[in-house]
Design goal:
8 strands; Aminopeptidase; binds coenzyme A; 4 helices
Length: 176
């Protein structure tokens, strides 16, 4: 568990998710799902039972190279990051991450803190390559990833379809 002082002066707690967080994690994901159209699920499209979420968190806890990180401000989940790496020997060095910060908490540096924490945990687990896909018009996320050393590696056409409209994504990545 890490306590980090944000540029706003607030104290952020960053820690791995525990099984007992399952309900709050589901509620958090349903909240952020309705806040933007940058994610692979929209409002009310994240249908996971508490039991399933508990299992998922347990799997992350038991994994050597994958994890779910929560960022909390005053006991409220403000951000969530998951890094998922391969299980097979040839793929274990490689991970993909997903990141959200709830809209009311944007701009405080929480996204940056979560990625920095992920990078240091990944290095300690011998993960040497991290990739992600980001919607091409998600300027805030692209700026954040670029600032932290991720580079654009390709353009993924028609990666997502939302209400009939197609969106291209960028493939970004970093070698550690
Ligand atoms: C992308 C996201 C995770 C960023 O989280 P955050 O906590 O607001 O990020 P930070 O505060 O650490 O940094 C955001 C940076 O973007 C910059 N920024 C803000 N608005 C911007 C804009 N319109 N264009 C470009 N950069 C912008 C900020 O200035 C900040 O940079 P700085 O650290 O140099 O000041 C958050 O906006 C989010 O969850 N969005 C919805 C879900 C999403 O898009 N997830 C990513 C999917 S790939």
């Amino acid at each position: 568990m890490n306590q980090i002082r944000l540029k706003t002066g607030e104290e952020l707690t960053v820690r791995r998710a525990r099984e007992e967080d399952a309900r709050r994690v589901i509620d958090y994901i349903n909240l952020v799902a309705g806040e933007t159209d940058y994610l692979s699920f929209g409002e009310n499209e994240f249908e996971v039972t508490e039991e399933r979420e508990r299992e998922l968190i347990k799997r992350f806890q038991q994994s050597e190279n994958s994890f779910m990180l929560l960022a909390e401000l005053n006991d409220t989940i403000a951000g969530l990051l998951t890094l998922e790496c391969g299980n097979r020997p040839r793929l274990m060095h490689r991970g993909e991450f997903g990141l959200t910060v709830s809209r009311v908490f944007w701009g405080k540096g929480i996204g940056r803190v979560l990625i920095e924490e992920m990078l240091s945990l990944a290095k300690a687990s011998d993960v040497t390559r991290i990739g992600l896909q980001v919607r091409i018009d998600n300027e805030r996320a692209i700026k954040l990833y670029s600032d932290l050393g991720f580079r654009v590696e390709g353009r993924l056409k028609r990666f997502m379809r939302i209400r009939g409209e197609y969106f291209d994504f960028l493939q970004m990545g970093i070698d550690l």
